[in-house]
Write a structure and sequence with these properties.
- The protein has one domain: 3-Layer(aba) Sandwich (Rossmann fold), CATH 3.40.50.620.
- 50% of the residues lie in helices and 21% in strands.
- It is built from 5 helices and 5 strands, in the order βαβαβαβααβ.
- Helix 2 links the parallel strand 2 and strand 3.
- The longest helix has 32 residues.
- It comes from Pseudooceanicola algae.
């Protein structure tokens, strides 16, 4: 029997006690595996100087390694300690599109995202990650308060 996969759009410690705990609880009940994804936001529309473009690749690698160390690895350790099979990845780009595409690519059964989003003006104008995922995800999306 193939295990279902639940995607967890994980932002870090703020989501540990709510989102990650709930996803682990659901995975335990359903006998499912987790795929934890953290996306470092990046806008292709930002304007960079030629020097910043040159440094960009190196900075990206550094940021990805740091995010893996302080965000993803601890989350995977928590899932493993709970007896849940879990994989994970750090990506760079637009959160909603990447998480939704990952859910489709992995054939996920469900997607979990925290509600902890921003109250900033940009979130009000461009929409939040939870609402964006609820609108475009191809799988049921659970927004965890």
């Amino acid at each position: 029997m193939t295990r279902e996969i639940f995607i967890v759009a994980y932002e870090g410690d703020d989501d540990k006690d709510t989102l990650l705990s709930y996803a682990i609880e659901r995975a335990t009940k359903d006998g499912s595996a987790l795929h934890i994804i953290h996306v470092l936001e990046w806008s292709p529309y930002s304007f960079l100087t030629p020097e910043e473009v040159e440094e960009r690749h190196t900075r990206r690698k550094t940021e990805l390694a740091r995010a893996k160390e302080i965000i993803l690895d601890p989350a995977l350790a928590i899932a493993a300690a709970a007896g849940i099979e879990a994989t994970g990845e750090i990506r760079y780009g637009q959160v909603v599109e990447i998480v939704s595409a990952t859910a489709t690519k992995l054939g996920a059964a469900m997607l979990f995202v925290g509600r902890s989003g921003s109250n900033s003006i940009s979130a009000r104008v461009f929409g939040s990650v939870p609402l964006g995922l609820a609108q475009i995800a191809s799988v049921p999306t659970v927004i965890v308060p």
